[in-house]
TrEMBL record:
Record keyword Metal-binding present: yes
Stated name of the protein: GroES-like protein
PROSITE patterns: ADH_ZINC (PS00059)
Domain Alcohol dehydrogenase-like N-terminal: 56-186
Record-annotated Alcohol dehydrogenase-like C-terminal domain positions: 226-375
Transmembrane among keywords: no
Pfam families named among the record's database cross-references: ADH_N, ADH_zinc_N
Domain of life: Eukaryota
Entry's Gene Ontology molecular function annotations: oxidoreductase activity; zinc ion binding
Length: 442
């Protein structure tokens, strides 16, 4: 798939951008540790050049905190197209400003900052509305342009389909347009809280806001990874009367019940999810949100079609949401889908008057300041979802464990040699191999 997509992308050519994805290394030849993709289920820690200022709007960060995201597993399995061997991964990170380009006036050396996972130009019509994920001018993928009719902003560490920018699962990272893509963090907010302003907090909050959760609503959330767990709490904050989480991982189901007090459905026990929801909520959900994944089909039909590349994504969750939601209700998709699906229940969508909303990649800049205020005031503490802390060197084993959902993993804080000591009340440093009885061969 990668060879075909890269060949097609080469034939289509690059779309014009105002930034370059490539960076130059430092004159002294110094290197850093970084995690790179080399094939399906093959990620490796490599020595890569330490980035230097390449364009005058650049900022170079010493990474003090990074993490793994559920959507990174799509890369791990090679399901996102235009991956190339040696691509540095990671789109959630923060750090200390190491070097600043000549055009950057609002960010200073030594500041603590968090990066948005998207690279916005700050000047196009979308950026002026703070819709940073929709930026028109930073993603060079002509293939995405052809498939979607338009293209998203460039993203860090998420294949050449999103611009080919090296990511932040590394000791250093170059941030193009650093004057608009970095948020200064006050000393009162530790890294373990600030890091998640890069993605999971804006993403989960955007889903709840965009789908229109209001007081009294009964909300169903498919997928209880970090996005689903945070979305459940944000839905309750918006006044939802009930939140029902759907997943199959016992640790995640227990986590949701104990940490957030929501109801849960184990879809391995209740294989007919729609029937179970209708038993719990006669008349149906008011709102449904897909916070899950497309790479784990449940039915044999979708497993076969996906294996044979007759579809790239599966429609099972969306179909369940549509049929489990009341007439004239709303369904939102914040889970990362990439291509095409079969057997979509378009009839139920139309006949029931369902409002089906593709939330898009979350416009981080739109919510940054509001969410930082929530975190700083204690109104929302993202550390509830942080279950583990590991060193950068653990990344290959972490991917293997996270993929299998072993050891009760929800969100992991990954430290580098530049990280501060852990904040009070957060997990201590551990080794992946110590999380359970399994040994991770990587």
């Amino acid at each position: 798939m990668q060879a075909i997509s890269n060949k097609l992308a080469e034939r289509l050519g690059d779309a014009p951008t105002v930034v370059s994805a490539e960076y130059k290394g430092r004159e002294d030849g110094s290197t850093m540790k970084a995690l790179a993709w080399f094939g399906a289920s093959d990620v490796r820690l490599i020595d890569a050049p330490v980035p230097d200022i390449t364009e005058p709007d650049d900022v170079i960060l010493k990474v003090t905190g990074t993490t793994i995201c559920g959507s990174d597993l799509h890369l791990y399995h090679g399901e996102i197209i235009q991956l190339q061997k040696g691509d540095i991964l990671g789109h959630e990170f923060m750090g200390i400003v190491d070097r600043v380009g000549s055009n950057v006036k609002n960010i200073k050396q030594g500041q603590r900052v968090v990066a948005s996972f998207q690279i916005a130009c700050g000047e196009c019509s979308y950026c002026k509305q703070k819709l940073s994920s929709m930026c028109d001018r930073t993603n060079s993928s002509g293939l995405q342009n052809a498939m979607y009719g338009h293209r998203d902003a460039g993203f860090f560490g998420y294949s050449h389909f999103t611009g080919g920018f090296p990511g932040g699962q590394a000791e250093y990272v170059r941030v193009p347009k650093g004057n608009v893509n970095l948020l200064p963090i006050p000393d009162s907010v530790p890294d373990e809280k600030a890091l998640f302003l890069s993605d999971i907090l804006p993403t989960s909050y955007h889903a709840v806001v965009d789908v229109g959760v209001k007081p009294g609503d009964v909300v169903g959330i498919w997928g209880l990874g970090p996005i689903g767990q945070c979305a459940a709490r944000f839905a309750l904050m918006k006044g939802a009367s009930r939140v029902i989480g759907i997943d199959k991982v016992p640790a995640r189901l227990l986590f949701a019940r104990e940490k957030s007090g929501i109801e849960t459905i184990d879809f391995t026990e209740h294989t007919d999810v729609v029937k179970r929801i209708q038993e719990l909520v006669p008349g149906g959900l008011d709102v449904a949100i897909d916070c899950g994944t497309f790479h784990e089909p449940k039915s044999l039909l979708h497993k076969v079609e996906k294996t044979l590349m007759l579809e790239t994504d599966v429609s099972e969750t969306v179909n369940e949401m549509i049929t489990a939601t009341r007439k004239m209700g709303s369904c939102g998709i914040i889970a990362a889908y990439a291509g095409y699906t079969n057997h979509f229940n378009i009839g139920a969508l139309m006949e029931k008057g369902i409002r089906l909303i593709g939330h898009g990649q979350a416009p981080v800049h739109k919510y940054w300041h509001e969410l930082l205020e929530m975190v700083e005031s204690g109104k929302f503490d993202p550390t509830f979802v942080v279950t583990h802390r590991v060193a950068l060197e653990e990344f290959p084993a972490l991917y293997a464990s996270f993929d299998k959902r072993l050891g009760g993993v929800e969100k992991v804080f990954v430290e580098t040699k530049f990280s501060a000591p852990k904040a009070a009340g957060t997990p201590s440093l551990s080794r992946v191999e110590d999380w359970g009885t399994e040994i991770y061969a990587v």
